[in-house]
Amino acid sequence: MKSAMVLGATGLVGQRLVNLLLHDHRYSEVTCLVRRPLSASAFHDPHNKLRPVVIDFEMLQDYQGYFSVNHVYCCLGTTLKAAGSKSAFRKVDFEYVHIAAQLTRAQRANSFVWISSVGADAKSRHFYLRVKGELENAIMGMSQLPNASAVRPSLLLGAREDSRFLEDIAQKTAPIWQHVLQGALKKYRPVKPEDVAHNMVALQAWQ
């Protein structure tokens, strides 16, 4: 049996991912590092696998021992609007994820999967895509970090607690994009969070 650890368990993808892992017979335990206690109603845990741990993400490196699992899933992410500044956004979307990858390597977990973005490019003029690209370069360039993989979704479909203008539009116009974005443009279609969660599990190494 395997053990998993999830960061960002309360997000749109994170919730779906945790519920997926809780019903995956290959996992005996799912640890979630969270800012605040989890809502029991958000998760279905029939086999008592869920292990939520409330932490201070500013001191993430102090929780290194929790990374001693088989697979680490990182769903951390915010928006410029929610973060309030570019530096605050970068702290969540780059620094926290990068530290998580370093702790995964230090504890010799089998694999690390995180959420990036379609169009991520360290040379992009778009701040969001540039940060995502810089993070991909930083993690993929780390030595002795086995099986590091990024999923690169487009806009996510689904209801959020915080309203996101572009994702609200994507939700309403999704049927149109399914027909318009074909071939090489297919990767830009809005995606369901449960599909992203399934892709993350599929990228893990099952040794």
Any overview of this molecule?
The structure is a single chain. With 207 residues, this protein is α/β, with parallel strands linked by helices. It folds into two domains: 164 residues, Rossmann fold, CATH 3.40.50; 35 residues, no CATH class. Helices cover 37% and strands 15% of the residues. The chain is built from six helices and six strands. A six-stranded parallel β-sheet has the order 3-2-1-4-5-6, with helices on both faces. The longest helix is centred in the middle third of the chain and has 21 residues.
What's this entry about, in short?
With 207 residues, the protein is of the alpha/beta class. It is built from 6 helices and 6 strands; from the N terminus they run βαβββααβαβαα.
Average pLDDT confidence is: 88
Helix content: 25-40%
Name given to the CATH homologous superfamily of the largest domain: NAD(P)-binding Rossmann-like Domain
Q: If strands are numbered along the chain, what order do they take across the biggest sheet? A: 3-2-1-4-5-6
CATH class of the largest domain, named Alpha Beta
Strand runs, count: 6
Order of SSEs: EHEEEHHEHEHH
Which percent band covers the strand fraction? 15-25%
Put simply, the count of helices is 6
In the predicted model, the low-confidence regions spanning at least 5 consecutive residues are none
CATH architecture of the largest domain: 3-Layer(aba) Sandwich
Shape: globular
CATH topology annotation of the largest domain: Rossmann fold
Radius of gyration: 17 Å
From the N-terminal CA to the C-terminal CA, the straight-line distance is 11 Å
**How can the largest sheet be summarized?**
6 strands, parallel
Strand-pairing-aware structural class: alpha/beta
Q: Return the domain count.
A: 2
